Amino acid sequence: MDIQENLRAIWCKVLDLDEIPAGASFTDSGGSSIQLIAMLLHVGNAYQVEIAIDDFIGEPTLARLEQCVRQQQAAATEGAPTAAAAPDADTFPLLPVHYWLFERIDVNHYNVGHLYRLTAQDQPQHLRAAIGAVLRQHDGLRILLRRDAAGQWQQHLQTPDGMASWWHEEDLQTVPDHLLAEEINRICDGYQARIRVEERAFSAVYFDLGGERGARLFVLLHHILIDNISEKILFNDIASAYRALRAGQPVRLTAAGRRVGDWARLLHDHAQGPALAHYAYWQAQNWNGYRPLPADPDPASLPVADGAIAALGFAARSLSSEATTRLIELQRLQAVDPSYVVMAALQQAFRAWSGSEILALAMVHNGRIYQTIPDANVLQTVGWMINYATLYLRNPEQLQGVALVESIVRQAKAVQDDALSLTCLKYMNQDAAVRETMARLPLYHIGFNFIPFASASTEEFIFEHASEPCGEGEKWFSPEIKPFMNVLLAGQQLKLSMGFSPCMYAPATIEALLDGVVAQLETILLS
Fold first, then answer.
1. Rounded to an integer, what distance in angstroms lies between the CA atom of residue 132 and that of residue 161?
2. Higher confidence at residue 516 or residue 380?
3. DSSP secondary-structure letter at 224?
4. CATH classification of 262-286+309-454+477-526 is 3.40.630.30, yes or no?
5. Which of 205, 248, 259, 468 fits as disulfide partner to 218, beta carbons 3.0 to 4.6 Å?
């Protein structure tokens, strides 16, 4: 398969299309920013190149994508370094998402862990060397959060050799089959508990099960090191390094993006300068009609937490196949982003559910594409890069159907600089008066994350996920945690799920909100 045909296949896979019309652009084909990132990561992994978003987005066609790949291949030199030189230890400002973390959750138990099945032929020395090469390549995997002399939290970069011991081996050869899953879970839970932002944020554990039972690999990271996009980069690079080492070849990884420390300093400077140009925009907003989250209709029936809670409640609903088909048609034929359709339905349902004329959504922003920082080059950066951009959605004209969706699109796009200024000014600006003013903005009601199916998937990792449990990665939530909605467009079905504090709401209360969203979606799409 030649380059163009292979790129066409990647494009179709990411957008879940059968074919690309001649001359079609990525955006005209219904591609979102998160899908754009997913595609460029797929291409980078396939050809061992890094394509900057700015090089492609001006003319996002298949021909331009092929041209970018060929230019990168031509620019590559024989004997190029296999990995970027690891920088010295360093200290730099927090990212906005870190402040969100400190406000809402126990920072020391917010982990991402994956347990993989290995064979007896998968040697631990190759695995350790592969992961070590990736740790050296990506400085974002060597971050800790520590207080400085003034007591302020900062990001701290460790050198590869200065990290706390991260490789561990466990011998379970004598554990009988019927106790194996329980023992793996117990040991993994112990490693989960050792993850602490000031001391150790990364661990890899090799379990030797003996003989035909093979082995397991447990990769564990605190969330300060990783997000969904970084996860794809991390495991693709581990796979690439491992294959090379098993074949006796040198490890060659794609170039890392902007270093996390450089990005943190850039955002800090942005908060003192360009972000201030948007300060007046936030001050001028009208908050009439905003109401806080309502209480549950029967608060006496809810459990009372003595401190933090260990588990959240969840409720879920699905859209009918007929309505989902119509939603996909709008995306493909009219380039209507499905997330805006869901927001429109949620705004209407939330108004009826809460009495608030304004819906404040904490949007999960991928943190890698900002129109105001076009040369950021953080596509290949491994780290917790996401940002939370609050959208305040209104419908004073009482619009319905497509007219409401169009209004929501205009409101979302009117938010200046992708709402980056909101978090930069609130958390990173050095003027206390500015931070205090931004902190007085109305709090968000609901977290919102839209996940296109293709962008949620990637190539299969070289190892299969194991069936055994691997400890508790997330717990100790605040009893006052706000509800958050995940929207997954999977094939011909749209799935809505909402997490919530059982100390704030009964399941039936959240289910009533979700039922309202589904009813509004059906009305918008089928009327």
1. 10
2. 516
3. G
4. no
5. 205
Tens of pLDDT along 325-382? 999 888 877 778 899 999 999 999 999 999 999 999 998 888 887 777 766 778 889 9
Report d(CA 493, CA 319) in Å as an integer: 7
- pLDDT tens profile 462-484: 889 999 999 987 766 778 889 99
Pick among 3.40.50.720, 3.30.930.10, 3.20.20.210, 3.30.559.10: CATH of 90-256: 3.30.559.10
Helix segments in 249-376, DSSP class H: 260-272, 279-283, 321-334, 338-354
Sorted by where each begins, the domain ranges of the chain are 3-75, 90-256, 262-286+309-454+477-526
Contact indicator for 196, 109 with CB cutoff of 8 Å: no
Beta strands in 5-55 (DSSP E): none
Q: Is 5 exposed, middle or buried (0-12, 13-18, 19+ CB in 10 A)?
A: exposed
Strand order in the sheet with 153-157: 90-92, 153-157, 143-147
Q: Residue 91: count other Cβ atoms within 10 Å of its Cβ.
A: 13
CA distance 213 to 302: 46
Torsions phi, psi of 512, nearest 5? -65, -40
358 SS3 class: strand
Alpha-carbon gap, residue 372 to 277, rounded angstroms = 12
Rounded CA-CA distance 275/395 in Å is 28
Chosen CATH of 3-75 out of 3.40.190.10, 1.10.357.10, 1.10.3720.10, 1.10.1200.10: 1.10.1200.10
Residue 359: is it exposed, middle or buried by C-beta count within 10 angstroms (0-12/13-18/19+)? buried
- Give the angle 89-90-96 at the CA atoms, nearest 5°: 135
Distance of CA 227 to the CA centre of its chain: 4
